[in-house]
Every structure is written in C-alpha cells, then in structure tokens.
Amino acid sequence: MILNRISWFFKRHPFLYKARFKLLSKNSSIENIEEHSYNVKNKINDIPDYFNEVNAMIFKDGTPKNDLDVVKQLSVWLQNNIKGGPGLSEPSEEALRIMLSGKGGVCSDMAQVFNNFCVINNIEVREWGNTRAPFCTTYGGHSFNEFFSKSLNKWILIDVSYSLFFYNKNKEAPLSVLELYAFFPEQGGIYFKSFNDAKAVDEKNITKNYLHHDTIAFLICNYSNKTYDAFLKRTRPYIPVFVTHFVIFLLGKSYHYRFPLNNYKEIFS
C-alpha cells in the first residue's frame, strides 16, 4: 500500500507529472512523425505468446480480410471483455491477464495491449496521448491509438476504450489524429461514432478527452515492449515502478513524447 502511494505520487503529483513531460517531450513536426510507429521497435517475435492465444480466441471464426474490420473486431472484443480498474504497471502478458480477469486496466493499458494485437495481425499502429496546455491538475490525460489502414490508405484514430472513430461531416472516411485537430476549430463539423452496439458511449467523457479547447496531442515514440517487459519482470514488485522507468530513461532506452502540432512548453505556461 505504501509503495502504491509512493508510485502514485511520482506519477500524478502535479510537480512530478510536469517534470515527466519536461524529461520526455520533444517538439516535432507532421513530417517528422511519419516514420514513427510502434511496429518499428516491436516485431511479432517480441510479443508474448499469450497474445497469440487470445488473438486466436478473438478470431475463432476467422480473420476478416479488410484491416478496418480486423481492428473493429479487436476493439469490440477487448472492450466487451475488459471491465477496467486500477492502472497497471506490469509486464505486458501479466497486464493482459489481469485485465481479462476483470481486476484492472485504464486507457493506457488498453492502448498498449491493442498495440501488441495490431503487431501480430500485421497492422501498423501507434499510440497517442492527450493532455492539457496549460497543465490542469484535475485532468489526468487520455491514451488512444491510431492505425494505418491499407484499404483506405490513411491513418485512422481509434479509441479502443470506447470502440469509436471520429468523422468530419464532409468526409466519409474516419479521421486521423492530425485531421481531427486540423478540423478541431470548426467544432460543429466533427462527430464521433461507436461501432460497438453492446456499449453506450459516454459523450461527456469523449468531449472532455478530445474536444476541450486546451487539449494537445502527443505521439508516444520508441516504446520497446520487449525492453519494458524485461525490466518489469526483474524489478516488480521489489522496487517502485517509477524507479524502473527512470533507470530505463538513464540507459537511453525510454520512450519519449513528440508534439507535432503544439509547443510542449505550453504545458508549463
């Protein structure tokens, strides 16, 4: 319990939350992030076998040929089978087991396991986060994904926690992250739609996470599932998670945040 409180302090205390962004953030550009995806650092053989076992359950009746249908089926299955709960800082296989047992998992956990399922299904994927600028003590941020659809030849924002896409009234295809925030000033032209009939959409939450006027998006880059799994397996539960993450940072193997649309220093204004 004490270690959990200490870990929360280092993750969520306003001063240290901002310090994490100062350490890990880089200003970027739309052109620069084109080369970044989760698949660059994570190959099929890097993903624990348990993900393949669960993947076989998800697609027990066969895998759809269209990549859009594959990610929809993945998202709906995960949303329907993961109750959610406390945030996890576990190796990826253990995290997935805990999530499927109904004992934990927040948006970042959902986004991370979705990354791994996309890798083993040969779908290019990346993970994004949203925060507020200036920093807001009452908002903890949100994690979501983006995948490259070969059938549509574009990146598409997907929120696996809610199984939804964003759209613009003048475009038929779902929006990418960059398209969402390019259209953002229009407000009235943007809408979101769930493709999971079994779950109701929390519209207030979606608006809070994506359409608040102080929202800024960042791309999570250089995350190696294999590296973090190796460190977490050896250090959990002996030392607090924040120490493990700091060691990985000192070794130069940490993930980092890229801000293609905003100056990250706006967070500290």
Automatic annotation (TrEMBL):
InterPro entries: Papain-like_cys_pep_sf, Transglutaminase-like
Transmembrane segments: none
Any Pfam family matching the protein: Transglut_core
Domain Transglutaminase-like intervals: 63-159
Source organism, top-level taxon: Bacteria
Name the UniProt record assigns to this protein: Transglutaminase domain-containing protein
Species for this entry: Psychroserpens burtonensis
Lineage of origin: Bacteria, Pseudomonadati, Bacteroidota, Flavobacteriia, Flavobacteriales
